[in-house]
From TrEMBL:
Superkingdom, taxonomy of origin: Eukaryota
Taxon lineage: Eukaryota, Metazoa, Spiralia, Lophotrochozoa, Mollusca
Annotated segments matching region Disordered: 352-400
Keyword Transport among record annotations: no
Protein name: Uncharacterized protein C8orf74-like protein
Compositionally biased residues, Basic residues: 390-400
Coiled coil: 167-201, 263-300
Keywords assigned: Coiled coil
InterPro entries: CLAMP
PANTHER family noted in UniProt: COILED-COIL DOMAIN-CONTAINING PROTEIN 189 (PTHR28457), SIMILAR TO 4930578I06RIK PROTEIN (PTHR28457:SF2)
Pfam families the UniProt entry points to: CLAMP
Transmembrane segments: none
Amino acid sequence: MAVTLSDLVVKSISNLPKNEGKAFLASQLKLTCLEDDDNLRNAIYVDFLYDNLMFAVEKGFTWRQVCTVVTFCDGILKDSKDKDITDALQFLKLQSFELADVLGQRNFPIYTDFVFQTYLRHFKLFKYVFTQERDILKPTVSLRVETPADPGSMKQSKPELVWEYEKQYESIQREEAEHANKRLEEKAKTLETAEKQAKERLNFPIYTDFVFQTYLRHFKLFKYVFTQERDILKPTVSLRVETPADPGSMKQSKPELVWEYEKQYESIQREEAEHANKRLEEKAKTLETAEKQAKERLEKISGVQEPLSKEKVGELIQEIIGSYSSLVVEKVKCNIADVQEDLEFKLARTSLPRPQALGPPPRFNLKPKTPVPTPKKTPPKSPKSERKKSGNSRSKSRNK
């Protein structure tokens, strides 16, 4: 049966401190011994009802709504403790229609969210607490009762002096046994300490050898590390900021096509200059190697001993002709490469689309210059020849 509380009871519980309010709620439910470990289930039950009650009070529910909340949470706890979570949700859905009519549109979603965050989130924990019986731990203590020994008959009794003598004798024997045990323990301790000292003496040369092999071998290294301060390397970064060049006035500006043409023309000229420098370096290297080979051959020829045979002279002449011809061939190759690259760059410059604003493109003279023939010197005419020519002319005129 679900719990029903009156408005006065709910008001008094909300006005009391927490522990006193729980105790008063337990008294209304006729539950006792909440602090006892044997009644933890009742304590959890009271905490659950009290938390729901105080939540409704703190959120501003009316007293009638607070009483309804207590009845609802008690009913859902008792009815769904032996069910699965799906059945509990179905039960909550069925009961929520009546609860929504009482709580209203404002308080109903607030309280259902609280139920989901507390009870349904820990549904398995509540189910385990209220369905599984707790194991009762009862300590078992063994009590040993020693009864006095049988005094025996009076016929077997001893005189007092004999009894005292035996007691003293037994005490001396016990003391002797105790001293013997102490001596054995002391002897064992002395032997143990002696063994430890022997082990330490045996370990001493081993450790000293380790010190020599590690610390003393690298003594200068340890000394440097623990005496010299380490230089702190702080990197210095230089920042170079290049500002753009002055763009100039708009009057001096060029059309975009002219600017692009000039840029391409300049790049071709730079590339041509780089190739020209490379050709000069290669030409210098080839000429240098050819000169070295020629010098080596001349030194070889100068080192030949006289008299020379006909075959030796022929070999020397062949070497000289070979060195000369190789030098000439290298020069011709370099000249051909120069002409070929010049023609390629001239073709690249002429193939650029030239804007009309720059006028007609420059013309390159691709034909080699024809050498000018040198005038031949005519010998001076002698007077005899002039006389002969004059005579011949006169004779020709007469014949006519």
